[in-house]
Amino acid sequence: MVGRGNALTDLIQFLFDFAFAQGLGIAQISKDEEYRSLADKTRNLIIINTNWKNKAELPFIIGHEIGHLMEGDVGLSYYCGNALTSKERHADLYSLNLIFDYAAR
Ligand SMILES: [Zn+2]
Question: Which co-factors does it depend on (predicted)?
Answer without folding.
Answer: Zn(2+)
